[in-house]
Amino acid sequence: MGRRARGRRLQQRQRPDGAEDGAQGGGKRSEAGWEGGYPEIVKENKLFEHYYQELKIVPEGEWDQFMGALREPLPATLRITGYKSHAKEILHCLKNKYFKELEDLEVDGQKVEVPQPLSWYPEELAWHTNLSRKILRKSPQLEKFHQFLVSETESGNISRQEAVSMIPPLLLNAHPHHKILDMCAAPGSKTAQLIEMLHADMNVPFPEGFVIANDVDNKRCYLLVHQAKRLSSPCIMVVNHDASSIPRLTIDVNGRKEVLFYDRILCDVPCSGDGTMRKNIDVWKKWTTLNSLQLHGLQLRIATRGAEQLVEGGRMVYSTCSLNPIEDEAVIASLLEKSEGALELADVSSELPGLKWMPGLTQWKVMTKDGQWFAEWDDVPHNRHTQIRPTMFPPKDPEKLQAMHLERCLRILPHHQNTGGFFVAVLVKKCSMPWNKRPPKLQGNSVQSRQPMQANPADPTAGGAADPSELESKPVAGIGDTEIIERTENVENNGNRKDGVCGPPPSKKMKLFGFKEDPFVFIPEDDPLFPPIQKFYALDPSFPKMNLLTRTTEGKKRQLYMVSKELRNVLLNNSERMKVINTGIKVWCRNNSGEEFDCAFRLAQEGIYTLYPFINSRIITVSMEDVKILLTQENPFFRKLSSETYSQAKDLAKGSVVLKYEPDPTKPDTLQCPIVLCGWRGKASIRTFVPKNERLHYLRMMGLEVLTEKKKEGAVLTEESTASSGPPEDEMSAEQRAEPAASPDAAPGSDPAGAALPQ
């Protein structure tokens, strides 16, 4: 098995179920993270205790608290999505309604603990509580709170995410103009945080920056897509590559091809996961130092690949959910040593006030799975050289070690703030990596036909026992930036590619894993499909129509998607070397009977906040009472809406409309965030095309108790429908039945936010 294949297998198999965060991670993790009650298992591992006591990662006198915390269930934590304009409304709703109901509440004679904000997370947007799912279901008040969490998580307004997992994106310090790479992104909670940072200013529909989220596991990439879709951003692209050899991309800058370097890189590598023992109960039984020894090389290769793609002056965060210095400080020390001053550890001690952490270790030893210790590389017998590598040991030279400032690394211990265990290091790039400074060697065609960038020459997992200093002194087998650019231009000029079509890479150049994705086809400027849309919605001349794409090269275009111009640039220039799983947000869907109307495409709720700033007609301003009626009744007649709404709607032709609610600052008790909904103006009625969870979210924000509303007023709310038991959005009038359903259970390609993949 080749090194790359071995690395891919390690990434897929060795990443622990709890390596990422909350409930989005799927079955086992969500149960562990939120249930709190585990099957009986002996939480003992003598080798684990011996190892960490010897390494002295815990301050003197705190060992019992450390082990005690590891044996306790992990508190549930949630994060309010920070970029949406109604984050403050959700926080207000949580604090003044749901949390208040938890005060003085007892379940089985035990007082319920009211959630508390995480002291180090900005603006009280992250909270933790010891409530378990079992407790949530025991009382009607708690069940209501649980329904709120589930519904808001589906809508993308809340992320149920482990507290320590929130730290790396905060330390990246990303801004809306930054180009960001998330190297090992699935299941995607950290990626979601990064997307929020891009959209810090909600008045800017297309930030200059973007997030490219990568994962080696094809199936986990779709989990990543689901997470990203909840945030409806045109600035996210999900790709499927081995992070240790992720291709170097090029972009077009004023007609010239240039290598894409990232401003921020998140390198949350696969790890042994012994910091997740509180929710990943299996780690107690399975823990051995062998896991760390096997993963160290892969972690170092991924970190090195990230450092190569970082722009000078850029910031990279390396993190693991492991406490083991072999996976933590050893990787950082080796990376700093081989960078020869190109990288340095940033001092972030003041960036998250309130967070308790331990400084990184400067001395550690290596232990085999049998309990045998080695203090330095020279002590390791020859027959152990394939398992133990020189990069696993601290640097011998005290001056070099001191200059690295390994104490600037952050190790979070579980007992300090009732969290999981975690490790974070923040690296800043001062100049090019030494092997990238060397001029490319003139090489034969056989060498040139290799992957553009090979893994770092000082491969710590190489089978032989060669001295690493010899390896590092050899020239890199990769190629220079200029050669990459020339080759890209040759590929693009060979006439085999259609303009604006970004398909999957040819199989000869890259071995594909998983499903074959549909191509990304940008709509040509002269496409006759667009003028009727532009006229119908009176789109602003500044509308970036070049950024519209579909996922089919033949037949009728059923869905139109939108990406930012920066991601368009990336897509068009890299389709030969990049496997894209998903990008873009849906902005228009074709009506099944579209030819009957002036425009064949209706608006999609998923992309309405991006599209709305460019729409100048078919906008109906509605009151809060109108919004309540539109979201609770299936197809209300005009007479049920306010006279102001009726006067705006009566002269509009049948078809898709925008329903806009503007808050009234003179009435602070009412909803204080704007709402934009997609609707349909029928013959004598208006309906909304909004996914179920989003409907429930808006109603909740307006003070309607959704569960009781449904029971009490079910017949009234759905008086125009024949059945009143199901949610009103699951049914349609005869007039609308020709349209794609907007119910949450609709097939992919319909409107729900949770729709899987564009068809």
Automatic annotation (TrEMBL):
Residues 443-454 have a biased composition (Polar residues). PROSITE patterns: SAM_MT_RSMB_NOP. It is found in: Nucleus; Secreted, Extracellular exosome. One of its GO terms (cellular component) is extracellular exosome. It holds the Pfam family PUA_NSUN2. Residues 66-430 form the SAM-dependent MTase RsmB/NOP-type domain. It catalyses: cytidine(49) in tRNA + S-adenosyl-L-methionine = 5-methylcytidine(49) in tRNA + S-adenosyl-L-homocysteine + H(+); cytidine(34) in tRNA precursor + S-adenosyl-L-methionine = 5-methylcytidine(34) in tRNA precursor + S-adenosyl-L-homocysteine + H(+); cytidine(50) in tRNA + S-adenosyl-L-methionine = 5-methylcytidine(50) in tRNA + S-adenosyl-L-homocysteine + H(+); a cytidine in mRNA + S-adenosyl-L-methionine = a 5-methylcytidine in mRNA + S-adenosyl-L-homocysteine + H(+). S-adenosyl-L-methionine binds at C184, A185, A186, P187, G188, S189, K190, D215, D242, D268. This is tRNA (cytosine(34)-C(5))-methyltransferase. The lineage of its organism: Eukaryota, Metazoa, Chordata, Craniata, Vertebrata.
